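Structure first, sequence second, as always.
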C-alpha cells in the first residue's frame, strides 16, 4: 500500500461503519487531492492518468450501488443489500489516446442513520451525483436536501460548488414517469449540471451520464488545479435500449 492509500486507511480506521469489502481501494493511488495526476509508461508511450473522486448520494434504495456496479462491472442484482457507511469502486476511462481518467466512485449509504458521517466522506470530491427513484416520489423530494448537504460540506478550491448531476433511476419500471420539462427547470433552479433518466437494470443511459459528468470534471479540473485544501444539465434525447425508448436526459 502506498502513502496515499495509507491516508485513506487512517481516515477510515477510525470509522467502524465503513464496509470491509472495498475491492478497489488498493488499486487506487489517490492522494486525497481532488485532482490527482500522474503518468506511467505503457508500451513505450507515456500515459497520463487523472484520478477524481465522485460522490454518489441520495435516499436509501434508489439504486446508487446498483448503478455503480452496473457501470464498473456490468452486473445487476435484483436483491437489495443496503450500503453501510461507504463503499468504493474505481472506473478507468480511456478518455483519449494516452490519457486515462479514473473515477473513484464513493457509494454513500442513503439510510438516515449514516447521515452524520458524510462530511468526512465528501472531502476532496470534485463532483457528485444525486440519485432518486422515479417510482418513489419522496426520493425526489429529498433531492434538494442532498443538494444542500453537498453545498454545505464540500466546495472546489476556488470556493465554487462542485458540479452535481441528477440521475432519475429505475426508468424501466412501468410506474416510472419522466417529466422532462419539470426536471429541466428543476436543474436550472437548483444548479445541477443536468439530469439523465437511468436504469441499472436495463443499463440505460449510465455510460452517457458518466461521460457527460467526466467532461464537466475535466473542465473544472483545468481551473482548480492543483488542489491542496478541503473541498467540498437543455437537451432531450431519446435513448434506445432493449426494453423501451423512453430514456431521457437533460444537459447544459
Ligand atoms: N427495477 C429496477 N430496480 C433497481 C434499479 N436500480 C436498483 N434497483 C433495485 O433497487 C434496490 C435498491 O438498490 P441499491 O442499489 O441497493 O440502492 P442504494 O441506493 O445503494 O441503497 P442504500 O445503500 O441503502 O443507500 C435493489 O433491490 C436493486 O436491485 C433499476 O434501475 N431498476
Ligand atoms: Mg447502496
Amino acid at each position: 500500500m502506498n502513502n496515499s492509500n495509507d491516508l485513506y486507511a487512517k481516515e477510515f480506521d477510525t470509522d467502524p461503519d465503513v464496509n470491509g469489502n472495498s475491492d478497489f481501494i488498493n488499486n487506487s493511488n489517490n492522494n486525497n487531492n481532488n485532482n490527482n495526476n500522474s503518468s506511467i509508461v505503457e508500451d513505450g508511450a507515456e500515459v497520463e492518468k487523472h484520478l477524481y473522486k465522485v460522490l454518489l448520494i441520495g435516499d436509501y434504495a434508489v439504486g446508487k450501488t446498483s448503478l455503480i456496479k452496473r457501470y464498473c462491472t456490468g452486473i445487476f442484482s435484483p436483491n437489495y443489500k443496503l450500503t453501510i457507511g461507504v463503499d468504493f469502486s474505481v472506473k478507468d476511462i480511456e478518455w483519449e489516446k494516452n490519457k486515462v481518467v479514473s473515477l473513484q466512485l464513493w457509494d454513500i449509504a442513503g439510510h438516515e442513520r449514516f447521515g452524520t458521517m458524510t462530511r468526512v466522506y465528501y472531502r476532496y470530491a470534485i463532483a457528485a451525483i444525486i440519485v432518486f427513484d422515479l417510482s418513489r416520489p419522496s426520493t425526489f423530494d429529498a433531492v434538494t436536501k442532498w443538494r444542500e448537504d453537498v453545498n454545505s460540506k464540500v466546495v472546489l478550491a476556488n470556493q465554487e460548488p462542485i458540479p452535481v448531476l441528477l440521475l432519475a433511476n429505475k426508468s424501466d419500471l412501468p410506474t416510472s414517469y419522466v417529466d422532462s420539462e419539470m426536471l429541466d427547470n428543476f436543474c436550472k433552479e437548483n444548479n445541477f449540471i443536468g439530469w439523465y433518466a437511468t436504469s441499472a437494470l436495463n443499463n440505460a443511459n449510465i455510460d452517457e451520464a458518466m461521460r457527460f459528468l467526466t467532461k464537466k470534471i475535466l473542465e473544472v479540473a483545468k481551473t482548480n488545479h492543483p488542489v491542496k485544501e478541503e473541498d467540498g444539465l437543455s437537451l432531450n434525447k431519446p435513448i434506445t435500449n432493449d426494453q423501451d425508448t423512453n430514456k431521457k436526459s437533460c444537459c447544459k
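Margin note: Residues 60-66, 77-80, 82-83, 109-111, 169-170, 172-173, 199-201 surround guanosine-5'-triphosphate (ligand 1) (CB under 6 Å).
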